[in-house]
Amino acid sequence: MAEEDNIIPEVFIYTEGAAVPQDVVRVRVHPSVTAIPEEAFQERTKIEEVELCEGLLEIGGAAFSGCGSLANISIPSSVTLIGIAAFSYCDKLEEVVLREGLLEIGESAFRYCAALKQISVPSTVAIIQERAFEYCIGLERIELCDGLQEIGNQAFERCMSVKNVKIPSTVIRIGEWAFAYVPLVDIRLPDCLESIGSYAVARGNFPILRIPPLITTISRGLVGSCEGLMSIELSDSVTRIEYTSFSCQSLRNVAIPQNNVSIDARNSVFGLCDDLEQLFGTEEQIIHGLKHRFDNLPVHKMIYYQSYNNVTSDQLNSATDIRMSQRRSKVNPTGSQRDCLGMTPLHILACSTVQNLELYKVLVTKYPENLITEDRWGALPLLYAVWGDAPDEILQFLVDSYKSLYPDHELNWTGMMASLRRDKVSRSVLQALLDLYIDFVPDQIEELFEELAEHEGISLDTFRFIVQRGYIERVNTIGLKQYRDAIMVEMEIKPINSKLGWLNIIRSKLVQYEEEYRTLKEATTLLELLLWKNEMDKSESSKKRKRAEESDSNFREQCRIGCRADIVIEHVLPFLVPPKKFL
Taking CA atoms, which of 91, 123, 300, 484 is between 20 and 30 Å from 151? Predict the structure, then answer.
């Protein structure tokens, strides 16, 4: 009888106050339970399944902490509170379902849930407490709904698989380190945001950031070590900038308001800003230059602040004209000048968070020379538009403008690619620039590869990436999967010393596979004709019935499509390939 009492049931029914066995695997919480006490299931490492019933109101602190075998959990809509560290250190927790009705996600609630893939926070949650999802390193998707007002300190710190997150328009506070070490490629802060803590988005991978107009203090280390960040927009409401706020090596487009801004330069506001130091030299000179950046440059200033003032094309048109008399006006000459960074208004617009095609059209019409004017780093507006992930319609407009206005002007595509890689932007940006090159200069990809091979600023890994993307269309035209896979394997081999030597090997292999595929394809021509004829013979009687309605050429073409020769041949070709080719 004693042995029977020690047997753990297949499903453990948890009731209020019940002792939980150490080796329990499956749990069902009884409907009578309204609150799971603190540490109730803590360190029950064999739990694989938990069923929570409607009527449950609260999950206590550390209730399921350390349940290392738990794979998923569905929180009933009746639950209003998930307590402190309730599911922390659940290493295999891949799926969490949170429902409307939940009011609070407690401190460290899902901390160190490394396997968690996505999370959707319902609109009834007003506050995500600090460290709630810290170190969820497998988290790829975060969905935050309107209704959320506060994101606590370190709430998503080191969620290193997240690329994008949309901050709801209702959020008024983001805590310290909230998204630090999260490689975000895009983050937009809502205008209602009142405070954003120190290091809140440090180590991100986004190219541009706009500080909302209600923010008056730029906290220390706010965007520290965001390597690809090239543009920050500050409103006139900023009154204090703390030390190390903008320590980003690639930062270029930024201006300090001319009001009485308090700047805490104890450890340098612009420390590690290599690109700015290259132009100005010292911290004092950087600050002075950025404070007076738009002196006597009204068009530049209007464009920099256009996201705060909702500038329209009509307003820009008026600003770019100087009225000479009642009937005559001329273009404001300051719009063609360069500021202390060497930027024209078109450069600044290309760096903006708000992209308006109509504003581009006004600037290019009034100041077409802006298109080919380089700033002090040697960059064109096109580079910043690509870097900042401008919409396709704007990139296309710029490319078309270059073609129509300056058809003989040679763009330094190699230099642009080298600049992007030096500033460690995401590879998707590099891909976008390569796509523009292929569109702008079709059939000249080989010339680009040779220039890149000789350029010292292009690393071996970056060169391999560009070649892979540049050859992808040619690879895809090879109709034999074995050959396509084989050449892709060749391109995955990293160059060891010589980029040009590696390129020549890839070129040779690609030509070889293309030629062999053509040879094999020719060998199957007879098979294709037989399949086609067979389809025509089968359809002959049908053709006679439709002869009055259908031309002979249409009939033959339909038979060619209907014979499925492309499918048959694709499966026949592998048997014609010598086995030694893929040993």
Answer: 91
